[in-house]
Amino acid sequence: MESLRVLELYSGIGGMHYALKESGISAQVVAAVDINTTANKIYRHNFPDTPLWNKTIEGIPLDDFNQLSFDMIMMSPPCQPFTRLGLQGDVADPRCKSFLFILELLPRDYLIKVLSGCGYTYQECMISPTNVGVPNSRLRYFLIAKMSAENSSIQTSDKGCSFSHVTDSEFPERSSVLRYKCQNIDQPSEDNPNVHVLYKRETQMDSQRKTNQNKDLSVQQIQDYLEPQMNINMELYLLKPKTLLRYGSILDIVQPHSRRSVCFTKGYGRYVEGTGSVLQCCMENEISSVFTNLDQLTEEEKLQKMFKLNLRYFTPREVANLMGFPQSFSFPEDISIIQQYRVLGNSLNVLVVARLLQLMSSEHFGHSEGEKQFSVLGNEYQCS
Description:
The protein has 13 helices and 12 strands.
């Protein structure tokens, strides 16, 4: 059967491309488009044979798109205009310009209305990697859509297939993935003077939530995603004394046997608050014994206690592992650690997207070769 021809927009470091490979779908990425020079360098390093267009999407003539004769579009538009930590400019944010241009290639309207008006059947869902067994919370909005055979879209081809409503049975192992509630399961409790803080600004509710997460045997342990310690230059990743003193009480600390970690953002390694978990490497001391009454000690005494935990950042390779990137993925040698964290924080979870691609294409293989036009959209909806 003929391979699908795939156009990858906002290609970044290739998360969607890896997801396509992971899905097992017979497909070829005929072009990738992005304007981030660092991300493009990493993409080209890993996919040297894929045509990579370093252009703004709105600057590409429609004829150039049509000449690709693509069957599928994959994209993850910029999330910053819509995030809680961003400026919340919505469609007025200049970073939305390229996405709005894509929608204008269809009838002049917004996403859902555009899809409906063009004859697409779509499915929206909120999914976190924990839903597919990965110990990392990265709750994101995804939309998958397939066009019916009697309609056409951006390209001149009129091929397509029907897309019935997704049922739980089509996601057999973790069917709740399509019913996932939009909530930040790692959000600390709101400041409340009547709530008793145990230690490290954690309440009993916070502690119980983390305990419950660590008891979920359907999720793997953090240690399954770690590099061998002998391969890590610890001096590069250990938290510095000034960081421990200033941010020690708000660190999200996980251990090798934990089954949870919080979302890694593009600020990981540069900023501390809300950018990702840190790893406790020395297990001889309990976190509670180190942080209880810590605020009553001198700075030197505080450091002596916190040093006992041997806290470090996850390496970029470990973050990539948690985001589902295969071992074959690598960075060019001249990409700094901070740049690696930044592009990973702007990427998506490969395994989640692969599962969605499998789900979306499941009916395709039962249809004729001519019926194969569909698209997938994954938006980093809550990243910062």
